[in-house]
Amino acid sequence: MKSIPKEILELKDLEYLSLDYNQLTELPDEISNLTSLKDLFLGYNLLSTLPESIGNLTSLEVLGINHNNISFIPKSIKNLKNLNIIGVRGTRITRAPEFLKNAKFDGYAKRINTAKYYDAIKKLYKKK
After folding, report:
1. Is the pLDDT of residue 93 over 90?
2. d(Cα 83, Cα 104) in Å, to the nearest integer?
3. 100 inside domain
4. Which residues neighbour 88 within 8 Å (Cβ) at sequence distance 6 or greater?
5. What's the mean pLDDT in 34-49?
6. What is the DSSP letter of 117?
7. Exposed site from 27, 39, 46, 61, fewest CB < 10 Å?
8. In whole angstroms, what is the distance from residue 44 CA to residue 109 CA?
9. How many domains does the chain have?
10. Is the dihedral of CA 74, 78, 80, 86 positive or negative?
């Protein structure tokens, strides 16, 4: 899949969305319509940026952007007060942006540059 079908972007009550292992080159601004989204996985795509509108996903708890060509995180992410885990393994992001230094992380992921991301997610979902 090279783009997200617009029908998905209209699912306002959607809480979990995995778009891993596709050929997405961009995330549309309409992703911000998914206001109930708690878990968003975008790993193993062709993304080079995230839209500023991602900061409108205020219910988001987990964001996986592993193995993309992303080199920075938009400042709007600081609006995501519920964000517990952000996976950046395999991206060009080398350290946590200054505006995320005080972000709330759960006991599994203490920093944004998480080599342990994959194991943390596995542990998190085994508890549910």
Report:
1. no
2. 7
3. yes
4. 65, 66, 70, 73, 112, 113, 114, 117
5. 96
6. H
7. 46
8. 20
9. 1
10. positive
Query: The whole model's pTM is what?
Result: 0.78
**Percentage of the chain surpassing pLDDT 70?**
73
> Distance between CA 84 and CA 28 in Å, rounded?
23
Give CA–CA dist 16/4, Å, rounded: 14
Examine residue 3 and state whether it is found in any structural domain, yes or no.
Answer: no
Q: Structural domain of residue 93, as residue ranges?
A: 8-127
Residue 97, domain member (yes or no): yes
The CATH code of the domain that includes 58 is 3.80.10.10
How far apart CA 12 and CA 37 sit, in angstroms, is 8
What's residue 85's pLDDT? 83
Q: Which of 61, 17, 95 is nearest to 28 (CA)?
A: 17
Query: Would you say the C-alpha torsion 82, 3, 12, 19 has a positive or negative sign?
Result: negative
Contact assessment for residue 109 and residue 84, using Cβ atoms and an 8 Å cutoff: yes
Confidence (pLDDT) at 31: 97
Identify the three-state secondary structure at position 6. Answer: coil
**Tokens of residue 86, six digits:** 């952000």
